[in-house]
Write a structure and sequence with these properties.
The chain is of the alpha/beta class. It has nine helices and 19 strands. A hairpin with a 3-residue loop joins strand 2 and strand 3. Helix 3 packs across helix 4 and helix 8 crosses helix 9. Bound molecules: iron/sulfur cluster.
Length: 340
Amino acid sequence: MVKEAMLYEKLPARRAHCHICQRDCIIKDERKGYCKTRKNRGGRLYTLIYGEVSTWRRAPIEIKPVYHYLPGSSAFSLGSVGCNFLCPGCQNWEISFAREEQISVHTEYIAPEKAVKMAKEQHCQGISWTYNEPALWLEYILDTARLAKLQGLYTNIVTNGSLSPEALDALGPYLDVYRLDIKGFSQEAYREIAHFSSWEGILAVASRAKHHWKMHVEVVTNVIPDYNDDLEQLGRLAAWIKTELGAQTPWHITRFSPRWRLSHLESTPVRTLELARQRALSEGLEFVYLGNVRAHPASHTYCPGCGTRVIERNDWGQVVCGLRSDCCPACGTAIAGRFA
Ligand code: SF4
């Protein structure tokens, strides 16, 4: 559905300035923004993807991955089309880079009321906006999140972190979990991996989600050989997470698999991931997980006080046994997150 966009200003000569994400596009009449999901028609900006759902399913929250927010719960997960990054190794490239004429091919319209009803019918405890970049879906997420909160559902976005502070503030009252990708820790890394030049803006918005809006924040870094596997840089990222988001912020270091324009690369060696994890622990992060690695001990949660395994997960990240409170049952150390 086409709907007038939020967070834009009209400029002279029928141009429109979009403030949804940090691309900050100024869009001429009859043109679209970088993400191809927002179009200027006669000086007014419209979203082309309101309620247009490309994928929906009931999924464990651990798959996002989110490990410290109601482990073992299910989220109704839905996504649309479009992205404001251009990552050559994107795992969802068919929907992320869909053009305007392909939207109706990839999507079906699901009204906010129906999405919440489907979540309840499928016995989900929450809703997750995921698969493509949720910032581009702001108007729809806002309408759905308001209804979801009235129905007692938790809310989560899986984001590349590029939404503007204004977009975050619009969602802030209705959003519980902010699952953020940080793809590297330099401007160069972001330019190379995502063709994006506002790296420090991503960090600032993540801090605001955590401290101003008190959201539960978890971070993912997909480590790609030769792109962002430098241990020094990963160590600086770990130190930033500890200082700005807190030592108990879960950091998921995930293994890259060759795909799309990076099909020529090898999968990340597990040893590289293990060294990155060791480095992060030495920087003071207390919950550092490895993802996309089968049967690895770093997929479980250990008490930072006594080392007891307090949450055990299977190969798909799903909880085998878990915590019933936010304290270690063996020593009483507090564990950040929501567990009951
Ligand atoms: S959402 Fe971002 S990429 Fe899309 S038009 Fe707005 S500023 Fe540009």
